Amino acid sequence: MQEFKLDPRLLRTLLTAKEFGSRIHFTDTIDSTNNKAKKLANEGAAHGTLVIAKNQVKGKGRFDREWLSPEGGLWFSVILRPPAVDPQPLTVIFGAAISMIIESQISVPCRFHWTNDLYINEKKVGGILMESRYSGENLDYIVAGVGINLNFPAHELGYEFPIPPTTILDERGEPTAPTALLAGILNRLEKDYNQFLENGPTDIIKKYKNRCITLGRRVKIINSGQIREADGYALDIADDGGLLVELFSGAQGVLYNAERLILMEKY
Ligand code: BTN
Fold first, then answer.
1. Which residue minimizes the CA distance to atom 14 of ligand 1?
2. Pocket residue to mutate for ligand 1, from 63, 64, 69, 79, most atoms within 8 A of Cβ
3. Which of 23, 43, 117, 169 has the lowest tally of Cβ within 10 angstroms?
4. Tens-digit pLDDT string for the chain (267 aa)
5. Contact residues of ligand 1, CB 6 A cut-off
6. Cα of 76 from ligand 1 centre, angstroms
7. Contact call for residues 235 and 245 (beta carbons, < 8 A)
8. Whose alpha carbon is nearest atom 15 of ligand 1?
9. Closest ligand 1 atom, residue 32 Cα
10. Count: domains in the chain
């Protein structure tokens, strides 16, 4: 019979990755897998250490937004200890890689929306939260947190501004085996992470650009900083992971962060 529970023992057997998931911390309920991973990293946990939880009671997204994480979702964080490197492109690389694995393993049209969102059919199905610790200029570690709305209905999340979220259960109409999906994701992420370290971001970002639904779209950029709202077109992803946009004013610039980047109608 098909099993829809996360099984760390099965996960170990399915992992071809050498470091990602080489140590696994698996718990039922946790505040946030990112918080736990940061605590472990502060205590010296190794590169690739994986933290997974069945549900999070204080899951968080970018800009400290609440991330609802009921049982049935895939909530995990990986500790990364890169050498001196600009980690900025990693969010794009991980987002694109995860969207590819979701699409190829379970046949749903998953894409990533710059900078850190996973989308299916124009609705958000997951997200990535990278948190880093520096000592002065030196990068000590990154915690890469990934949340995927997997085996629960979207109505459990309520309505999220500005677009209602979706889940893979709702999109497929049937549950998905989480352990095999997680193994596929970790195996891919380790390969891409190593390629990024060896060759830099150019080739890998080029390879993954066609997975980005943001490109070629009209976007609304919303920030609480000086430019509160701007409309423009998303043109390209730069090597460093930034988004090249042309504003309606005609100005071009590279965006590195936006509180919200809303996809408008296609042009
Ligand atoms: C976002 O879209 O803003 C990012 C959401 C990231 C959620 C994941 S779930 C696992 C990890 N632990 C957290 O508290 N957040 C990330």
1. 59
2. 69
3. 43
4. 566 899 999 999 999 999 999 999 999 999 999 999 999 999 999 999 999 999 999 999 998 999 999 999 999 999 999 998 888 899 999 999 999 999 999 999 999 999 999 999 999 999 999 999 999 989 999 999 999 999 999 999 986 666 789 999 999 999 999 999 999 999 999 999 999 999 999 999 999 999 999 999 999 998 876 668 889 999 999 999 999 999 999 999 999 988 888 888 765
5. 32-34, 56, 59-62, 65, 67, 69, 75-77, 116-117, 127-129, 145-147
6. 8
7. yes
8. 60
9. 14
10. 2
The CA distances from residue 117 to 60, 125, 128, 133, in Å, are 14, 8, 7, 22
- Residues with Cβ within 8 Å of residue 228, at least 6 apart in sequence: 222
Q: Whose CA is nearest to atom 11 of ligand 1?
A: 145
User: Going by C-beta distance under 8 Å and a sequence separation of 6 or more, which residues neighbour residue 82?
Assistant: 139, 142, 197
- For ligand 1, atom 9, name the residue with the nearest CA: 147
Distance 145 CA to ligand 1 centre (A): 5
Any domain includes 151: yes
| Domain, as residue range, for 80 | 8-210
Whole-model pTM: value is: 0.95
Cβ–Cβ under 8 Å, residues 78 and 147: no
Q: Where are the alpha helices (DSSP H) in the chain?
A: 8-14, 33-42, 89-106, 168-172, 178-199, 202-208
| 124 within domain boundaries | yes
Residue 220 within any structural domain of the chain: yes
